[in-house]
Structures are given as C-alpha cells and as structure tokens.
Design a protein that fits this description.
Number of helices: 16
Shape: globular
Strand order of the largest sheet: 3-4-5
Distance between the termini: 45 Å
Structural class: mainly alpha
Strand content: under 5%
Radius of gyration: 23 Å
Largest sheet: 3 strands, antiparallel
Number of strands: 5
C-alpha cells in the first residue's frame, strides 16, 4: 500500500492531468505491483529490465560483435534473458556500460512504470543518464517518468474517460487482454475509489483496444483518406493517431474515438457505408509497414495483402492469415497481385497526388 506522502504525490500529478486521482493511483498500483525499490548492494535502486535487442540496435556498430559475444546483445527480442535478481540486472548494466555507456543506459526500462530510457529525449530529459538519475530520486522521480510517458503516448484521454481497455492497450501493448491488465486496472480503481468504475464515455465506440472486422473497415476508410496504416483489425496507437489526424483535418474533436460524427464523416468518402461501432477485444498488433518505393505508404502493400488474403479465405475458409494453406501456384499469383497492386498504387499516387498525405 502507498504511504500518505506517495498518495499525495499521485494526487498532485492527477490534478495536473485533469484525471481522477484514483485512476492514476490504479495505473501506478498495477504497474508497480506495490514494489518501488530493490536492495542493490545496500542501496535502494529502481527496478530495471534489460532489453538485449535494444542494445544490439543502439550499440556502436564497431562494438556490436563484442556485445554479442559477451551475451549482452541479440537482434531477437527476449533472446538475452534477464537475471532474476535486481542486483544481477544492475551488474549486467554496468558490464554493458563498459562497452557503450549511453547505448547501455538506453537499453533498460526503469522504475515502477517500466519506462524505456531510450525515450529520454521525447520525455524531456537532458540525457539517458539524467533520466536514470531522476528515477533514482525515489517515488516522485519514478512517478515523473511514468506520467511523462503517459502524456507522450497520448494516454491521458483514456484515463480521463475511465477507458481501461484503451489505456492498457496503449501502455501494455497488444497482449494486454491475455494478462488482464484492463481488468486489473478497473479493480484497482474500484478499491481506491470505494465504488464501481464509471462507464467509459467511449463505450460502444471504436477506440484503442477495439479489434475485428469493424476496425478493418475503419482502417480501409482511413487509407482511402490518405493515411498510412496496416489493415490488421487492431485499433492500436497508429490507428488512433490516424483517427485523431482525420478528426483535426475535418473540424471534429480530436479524441481518437470513432463516434457517430467521425464515422459519418469517414463514410462520406465515395458514399461508403457508415461504420457500425462496437466494443470488441484486442489481438496481436502488426507494425505499420512502409509503402512501395516510399510512395503511397502502407496503403499499396496493404491493398495487395487484402486481395491475397481474400483469395486464401475463399480457398481454405480459415480467415485472414491463411496463406500457409495456399498452394505454391497461388503464391505466384499472390506475388503478381502484389506487384499489380503496387503499380496501380503508384499510378494512382502520381495522378492524384494532392489526395494523399505523406506520413
């Protein structure tokens, strides 16, 4: 349980964010699991986690092989295992710092909010070392890291709306439902507040954390409006940001939630049918993919991929992602469809360049 001083610190930060203090307390509770420090050689230090794939990318290229041989770097996420004890993790960090100090610092997540130090500049810190120093100050320093990340990631709206699924999707990633982060947040809020969680103002609307066919419809419409997205049915940060940009362009409230007005405005493009919003669970996210030759962004490849998936669906009846069941001959056809889609995407881009925005 938090001390009186710690709770006052959270309340002060919540006031700055115009968020219910119990909502921010819930987020801190779930992320920290009630643990703020670890005893490392007699010192109270923040909890850290080593990310070897970050180090592999960030380390000076001339020292990458050295880092790999030392078992500190690997291009595959999770390949470098974290020691169980925090003392061993801090020792690992010190070893890495002897190879490349700043790259090593940027390869850890730190504090009860587990914020990547690689975000130091975006979060307003002077350097990776400065961000770690702030985390080492104590509870208030780690709270500073977490709230700065919440603001940078655009998750204040989700806390204000008590949108636990949306916040969990944005903060914990596409697997948040598997680990029940949204339910844990809701339950923690209700314990702190002593009452049931208010119904989210965005309930029943497409928003961060939604998934399925309706999200795919939304993503296709956003692509038609010139936004670069992978059409994967997962309403993650990339889709939310595209929705916000569309709303801002069309004089709507830029909240990233697809309500009736946003849906109608999107559907006005070429007489598309309006999207029927629904609250649906989230699945694995795919990263936004770049477009063919940098023209048209992800739209070109996404359209081609949809055509191939449609063929696979008809042949196997197993849904999107069923390409593994398509015969070798169909892979050839699929390749031709991608090339054809790329050609027409580029041709359309050149003929109506003003319609699309570069992202």
């Amino acid at each position: 349980m938090f001390t009186h001083i710690q709770m006052r610190s959270v309340e002060a930060e919540a006031l700055k964010l115009s968020v219910d203090p119990n909502a921010l307390l819930a987020a801190v509770k779930i992320e920290s699991n009630g643990k703020i420090f670890a005893d490392v050689d007699g010192k109270n230090l923040p909890l850290i986690r080593w990310e070897g794939h970050y180090f592999d990318q960030l380390v000076d290229p001339s020292k990458r092989q050295e880092a790999r041989k030392a078992g500190l770097a690997n291009p595959k996420a999770g390949a470098v295992k974290n020691p169980k004890s925090q003392s061993a993790r801090w020792a690992l960090l010190k070893r890495a710092m002897k190879i490349d100090p700043d790259a090593a610092r940027m390869s850890i997540s730190i504090g009860f909010g587990q914020v990547m130090v690689a975000h130091w500049k975006k979060l307003g810190y002077q350097s990776p070392a400065h961000m770690i120093e702030i985390a080492c100050l104590g509870f208030t320093g780690q709270l500073d890291l977490m709230t700065n990340y919440i603001k940078w990631a655009g998750l204040v709206d989700e806390l204000q709306r008590f949108d636990w699924s949306g916040f969990a999707r944005g903060y914990n990633g596409p697997k948040y439902r598997k680990y029940g982060y949204h339910t844990k947040l809701k339950n923690a809020y209700e314990r702190f507040a002593g009452k049931s969680s208010p119904a989210s103002a965005s309930s029943g609307m497409l928003r961060m954390g939604s998934e399925g066919a309706r999200v795919r419809e939304l993503q296709k419409l956003l692509v038609k409006h010139g936004h670069v997205l992978n059409i994967d049915g997962d309403f993650g940060p990339a889709t939310r940001d595209a929705v916000k940009a569309f709303q801002a362009e069309n004089g709507l409230d830029s909240d990233g939630v697809v309500g009736p007005r946003t849906s109608a405005e999107l559907a006005s493009f070429e007489g598309e049918p309006a999207i029927q919003s629904a609250d649906v669970p989230a699945t694995e996210n795919r990263d936004v993919k770049s477009g063919v030759f940098g023209m048209g962004g992800g739209a070109a490849l996404t359209v081609g991929g949809d055509k191939i998936n449609d063929i696979a669906d008809k042949l196997s009846g197993t849904g999107v992602g069923s390409l593994e069941w398509v015969s070798t001959g169909m892979y050839v056809v699929a390749g031709l469809l991608i090339l054809g889609g790329a050609f027409w995407a580029i041709r359309g881009h050149l003929k109506s360049k003003q319609t699309f925005e570069g992202i």
